[in-house]
Structure formats: structure tokens, C-alpha cells
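To the team - zinc ion complex, inputs and output below.
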Amino acid sequence: MARILITSALPYINGIKHLGNLVGSQLPADLYARYMRGRGHEVMFICATDEHGTPAELAAAKTGQPVADYCAEMHNTQAELARGFRLSFDHYGRSSSPQNHALTQHLAARLGEAGLIEEVSEEQVYSHTDARFLPDRYIEGTCPNCGYERARGDQCENCTKQLDPTDLIAPRSAISGATDLEVRETKHLFLRQSTLRDRLDKWIDSQNGWPVLTTSIAKKWLHDGNGLQDRGITRDLDWGVPAQFDGAPWQGMDGKVFYVWFDAPIEYIAATAEWAEAQGLDDSAWRRWWRNDEGAEDVRYVQFMGKDNVPFHTLSFPATLMGSGEPWKMVDYIKSFNYLNYDGGQFSTSLGRGVFMDQALSILPADYWRWWLLSHAPESSDAEFTWENFQGSVNKDLADVLGNLASRVTKFCRSKFGEVVPEGGAYGPREEEFIKELEKGLRSYETMMDNMLVRRSAQDLRMMWTLGNEYLQDAAPWSTFKTDPEQAAAQIRLALNLIRVYAIVSRPFIPDAAASLMTAMGSDDWTWPEDLGAALYNLPAGHAFAVPDVLFAKITDEQRADWETRFAGAR
Ligand SMILES: [Zn+2]
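Output:
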């Protein structure tokens, strides 16, 4: 049994995520976690909401709530949606937790003591009315390029020109509207990533079989232009992990917090500590996953994320852990994803274009979405969601192939043999041939899943379902029954056992349907079919089963047309 640590990139707190976000990290991470548990491994699957930073403050201000209340509420909303999609996190934490505060400050102090943090003086805009320094996004004014009156200090939304706050004409505070602004000198902490460049480079080179998408992004950041740059890790905000604390190896950081990109990945570790506390366990329970000197040496650590998150996970976060001089568990494999587009364009949170997690669950159960999203995961390139494709895939794969097989076999058995696994007859050459083919499919499926090849895993699973249908088509127990009821009984016995095997192997993709199939087969033995032949004898003659409810309803053309219109924009 192996020990596998899995983290999904943290969804940001400021709103409900769309399906493109979901398939870019959390959903494939869940697939892998479920599969590894199914194979009998010890899994720790961690995610959390990423709660600090300017966008959280701005989103809270919009709702008129204190930022802490806003984050608590949005965390609960996101956790509820995660449960709705059956994301099987061992813990869904919060980057604002006391554990993350303590660990972020601890690591920052270690980096400071190691000489890897520099104090840098910068000029920044100060607002007298607000009595605070303003981050770039908190300053608004007229764009010098296009004349747009609501341009932000970092960028003009209208003409997309990158700006400095001092470029703005008639600048004002986005918080209060105050115009009594002045440029003042202030101090920030910078992480000296550039001094770790060679160590990071060597570490990346020593990794085996990382996807090209991951290493090419990392190498670009390491070497392009002037190479890896030092980065500011503090901001003038109230909401976050205070940068001045007891034991800090610097002074004068009062009123500043760590920048969100510094504390967010540390939350992977802190969320595991949150898990231990929630379970009533002591610190050794989480440290055995994260400290190489306390048991994590045999842990395999896999991260899932969208490609935009790769630089933070291949460079910044490793720089933090390496630079601390402490034996923290470093990532072993990074699985990154391209983007999912929506119906000829992009998902857009601001325009409400595309399907968001809450909307998806309001029209169809989780398994429908899980199957489509995973079987079309944007792995080697960007992928596109269209309603036509979604309808076709659900109706064919789930309803016609898997659902139909389960329904036909159980109903036929009930009508001819009753609701028990029939006795009599034996598996013959046709059955042996089918089992051999199915075994090939299963071993290939396992290889794809072991290697996190999501689309190809879905293809193999679909092929296993199809093989079952082809076998039944060919054996035709409904005809055999008229001439040789014993042989028909053996064929149906095999098919009922096949349904149980499908439940086990399909569970990582479609957990609810898998549970329905397992319950219908009167079993709760989820043991992985290492020996497929034996697994297909698992339910003996005389074992009671039930006809399952309709597993998957087909999507009608009317529904499709309705949804196409409804999700076109303006949420
Ligand atoms: Zn402009």
C-alpha cells in the first residue's frame, strides 16, 4: 500500500466557480483520489478556499459585509457545491485559518533568518482620508490612453493598457473616492527567488516524467529575459496574515500582510493540520504527510492545477519550502490543465457566460457533468463545451451504453428467473473470450489512471462498457432462453456480476451511479477486481438483487435548446 498526498489548486473565494475552473483542478484531482482509494492506497486529499488579497476585500465591500464574514459565507457556499459534485476531499480548509497564519509566519521567519528576504523601499500611493496605502487596484482615475474614466491603477479595463497608478489622470481612492492622495515611500518584503534559481533548475531537471506543459512553463520563468525575479511578498492590506509578528526577523511591517500568492500554497500544509484538528488527532497525524523527517519520505505528492497556476507551484512555493532549510515534502508530480472554453467563446465570470457550479447542479445530477467534463478534460490542448456534444455524450455513453445494459439485464432476469442471480449452466468459450477482452481493457484503464491520463482513462472505461453490450448482443440470452435456459442463466449470471464490476471501476468517474448499481446488486464489496475472472464469480447463484431505478435520463432536444439560451450570458 502506498501513501498518496493529493492537492487541488485552491479556488479563490470571490464567487462561485464555473465548470472550466472545476475541470482544471478539483474534479480530476478527485478522480485520482477516488481511484487510488479504490486500489487500496492510503490517500490524503486536500483543498481549501483561497481567501486573502485585494479581490476578496473588493468583493466583500460590494456586498457591504465585513471581509471575514463574506469569506466565511462564501467558503460554506463553495464547500456545499463541492459536496454536490461529490468532491471527496479529506479536508476542505480555509487559507484564513489560524493554522495557516502560524505556518506562513513560521516559514517567512525561516526564510528571513536564511537571508532570503530583503526589505525594499518603494514609492506607493497613500490616501489621507482612508489613512492607508492603496494597492494599485484600489486607485481609479481617467486612462491617459483612451480617456476611460474608471481605469484602475494596474490596468485600463476599456483599452487593456497596463498602467501605473501615477499614470492616471485625476486619481481617486476606489474605497472612499477621496482625492487627497500622495506618493510616499514605504517598505516591503521581497523573497529573493533569484538566488534559488540554480537549485530550482536542478530540482526540476531531477523530476521524472513531468508533463511538457508543466516543465516548459517553469523553464520559461526560470530563464526567459533576466530569469527568475525576486518577488514582493507583502501588501498594504488589513485582511491577511500579518507580516509583523512575534519572532519576525524584521521591524516596521506593521499594517502589512503577506501577499496572497505567498500564503495560499502554504495552506496545502495548513489545511492538513486543520484536518488533524478536526479529527481530534495530534500534530504527528499531519506531519507524517509533510515532513520528510517525520514519515513523509515514502509519500508520493501529486498536485492538480490549471496552467496559469504552474509558475507558483514549480517555482514560488518550492522556493519557500527549499529556502526554509527544513525538510518539507516537495511535490513529486504536477498535473496541469489547459482551459475549457464555452460554446464558441470563453467562460466569463463577469459576463455570466457559461455554466457555473450551482447552475449545473440545479439542472442535472453531478454524474452527468463529471462524466462529460472528465471525458473531455482539456489535457493536451484547450477543450470546448457545447450543448450538442454534452447531450450526445450523456445520451450515448451513460444512457444507451451503461444505463441500458443495467436495466435490460436486471429486468430480463426478474421476468424469467426472479430477483436472484440465476443458477445453472456454466461460462463457455464465448464468456471466456469476453472476460479476456474485458481484462485487457481493465489493465489499460489502470495504466491510464495510474498516469493521470484523464481522457484516455474515460475512453478505456467507455470501451469496457461497450464490450459488455457487445457480449450481450452476441450472446442474446433473451433468445438463448427459448432453446437453452441453463445457458441463458449462466449468461445472465455473468452479466449481473459484470454490473457489480462496472460499479467498482466506474466509481471514480460517476460515484452516485456506481453506488446505485452496487446497492441494486445487493453488495457492498468494493474490492478492486485485481483478478477479474474471480470478480465475475463474486455474486453466487441465489444472491438477491433489485432492478435499479433509471440510472441516466436522456437529455431531450427541448432541454438542450432551453439551456443553450439560458446560459448564453448575463447571469
Ligand atoms: Zn484606456
